Amino acid sequence: MKKVIEVKDLSKHFQVHQKKQGLENSVKALFSREYKEVKAVKDISFEVNRGELIGFIGANGAGKTTTLKMLSGLLYPTSGKVSVLGFTPNDRKNDFLKQISLVMGQKNQLFWDLPPIETFEFNRKVYDVSEKQYKRVLNELVDLFDVGEIVNQQVRKLSLGQRMKCELISSLIHTPKVLFLDEPTIGLDVSTQKSLRKIIKEYNKKYGSTILLTSHYMRDVQELCKRIIIIDHGTIIYDGNLSEIIKKYTATKRISIYLIDKAPKRSFLKFGKVVEYEDHNVVIEVKRKDVPQVASKILQELSVEDIDILETPIEDVIDQVFVEANNNHKNENR
């Protein structure tokens, strides 16, 4: 498959002003400032093929947004090489900008006092999209996002979820080949998050766009991405299939038991580790290979109304990856 994004030893360092407390120090800072170098991204390398939808995961301050800004040309790298669609992003060439889009969940591009359709038309002219293509793509996106009834309403009167859908449409009017999504579902209710996930998946399939997605909602990543890249303190600590990392870090599964008659907590200890115990619902953790036998014993020995076999939550898996990385980092610095 053709490589769309190529990143080699990419780094970004910032000089951050260190301001001391007090009026006297504030006055001194006007003439002489102290700076600290912050290494936001450190020698990262990865490649992305055409049509891939990849989850880019990391804690706050890990370097996700900084990386996306370098890939989209908003930030100039300190060192390293980056190529997107064969272009060097920070050159900001028109031919490059017309083929990408960066959507940031906390940033608005819609005109607040005008209906979304006005922003769509504005972007059509900015990206030099023909009337014919614009009408075709707009109709497809309006149907896909199910926003036909709101595109002519003032943006200020729309809900957060409706605005986010229109923000995405505005960024997709020129059908970008590469789409950078930075927290697109942040602050949205569960139902709207689910709707946006479905839309992103359908858009990726329909247009074959390459998508790099950052999100703190692991459900977004789990449902959309086969491959994930995990970044921690500016360094990539994992790049591979999501399914593989789940297998590596989950030697256990969880059994959720719904009881007809409540039983004491101690009666479950022989089956495995009790993770949750509340009224008639108990969740225990057992080794993967032991699940069939343990489930069978539970059904034989207890008064059970229902039983579910659950995977370890993806949030717990990712947390284990970060804990292991931090432990390795501490050991290296000793």
Largest sheet: 6 strands, mixed
Alpha-carbon Rg, integer? 24 Å
What's the domain count? 2
Q: What portion of residues is helical?
A: 25-40%
Strand content: 25-35%
How would you classify the helix and strand content by structural class?
alpha/beta
Instruction: List the secondary-structure elements in sequence, H or E.
Output: EHEEHEHEHHHEHEHEEHEEEHEH
Please name the CATH architecture of the largest domain.
Answer: 3-Layer(aba) Sandwich
- Which segments are poorly predicted (pLDDT under 50) over 5 or more consecutive residues? none
How would you state the average pLDDT, rounded?
89
Return the CATH topology of the largest domain.
Rossmann fold
Number of helices: 11
Distance between the termini: 43 Å
Any idea of the CATH class of the largest domain?
Alpha Beta
Q: Can you say what the CATH homologous superfamily of the largest domain is?
A: P-loop containing nucleotide triphosphate hydrolases
Give the structure's gist in a few sentences.
With 334 residues, the protein is α/β, with parallel strands linked by helices. It has 2 domains: 178 residues, P-loop containing nucleotide triphosphate hydrolases (Rossmann fold); 60 residues, 2-Layer Sandwich (Alpha-Beta Plaits), CATH 3.30.70.980.
Task: List key phrases describing it.
36% helix; globular; 2 domains; Rossmann fold; single chain
Notes on the protein architecture:
The protein is globular, with a radius of gyration of 24 Å. The mean pLDDT is 89. It has 2 domains: 48-70 and 92-246, 3-Layer(aba) Sandwich (Rossmann fold), CATH 3.40.50.300; 251-310, Alpha-Beta Plaits. The protein is 36% helix and 29% strand. Helix 4 (116-126) packs parallel to helix 6 and helix 5 packs antiparallel against helix 6 (160-172). It is built from 11 helices and 13 strands. With 334 residues, the protein is of the alpha/beta class. The two termini are 43 Å apart. The strands form 3 sheets. The protein has a 6-stranded mixed β-sheet, with helices on both faces. A 4-stranded antiparallel β-sheet has the order 11-12-10-13, covered by helices on one side. A 3-stranded antiparallel β-sheet has the order 2-1-4, covered by helices on one side.
